Amino acid sequence: MASAFLEIDGVCRHFGGLRAVDDVSFRVAENELVGVIGPNGAGKTTLFNVVSGALPPTRGAVRFEGRPLTGLATSAVARRGVARTFQNLRVFPDITVFDNVSVGAIGHYGHSLWRTLLPGLGRDDSRRITELTWQILERTGLADHAQELAGNLPYGRRKYLEIARALALRPKLLLLDEPAAGLNSTETVELARFIRALRDEGLTILLVEHDMGLVMGVSDRVVVLDSGRKIADAAPDAVRRDPAVLAAYLGSEA
Fold first, then answer.
1. What is the C-alpha to C-alpha distance for residues 167 and 82, in angstroms, rounded to an integer?
2. Is the pLDDT of residue 250 over 80?
3. Is 72 inside any structural domain?
4. What are the phi and psi torsion angles at 23 (to 5°)?
5. What is the per-residue pLDDT for 118?
6. Is residue 67 situated within a structural domain?
7. CATH number of the domain bearing residue 195
8. How many beta carbons lie within 10 A of that of residue 172, not counting itself?
9. Span 159-171, mean pLDDT?
């Protein structure tokens, strides 16, 4: 395997007596798309929260590009080039699609919103933020919706808006937390093509997803968690045949 771009080393996250993540280790190479699967309560989102800085690990370390992420705030992790989406959409419904994506673009340039609004001081920043916002809107198919209120978008388009805001940070590593949740089969197929295209353009992606067709279809490797522990880490075809995975997660779907 290529040298680690993201390294998760013996990560544990305990909540009292509950071991939500229990001694999990794996690596993600640059330009790799790794899926993370497991039943409800397996620790997938908790692991994402540790990687993104939302939760500190009880033990273990997370390194990105050879430097520790452990102990950094979410804003510092984002400045290092790690962006994430959320299972429960966190778009701002009462502002426009354009302004939602601008929030990510502002973060990319490391400025606060008020600074971009100051005459003179913020003019150049405002121009660069506007240009980046339009680029991301075009890339995600949202340009025609730019002036609509985000809350008026169909649910499937709001999923893309969540991804667009993360992409506006210009991340090196994108964490996608169940992006297909709530989508119909046609929307899921479209999303799978989009995610794979991002990977083909050079973006490294860590994907948590319950839709087996999507995760097996787009992932280079699949990591399987069960009760907080890693039980498999292999190519999709190997994971499909792994007895431990079939017993713990796929069950009758196998």
1. 10
2. no
3. yes
4. 60, 55
5. 47
6. yes
7. 3.40.50.300
8. 18
9. 95
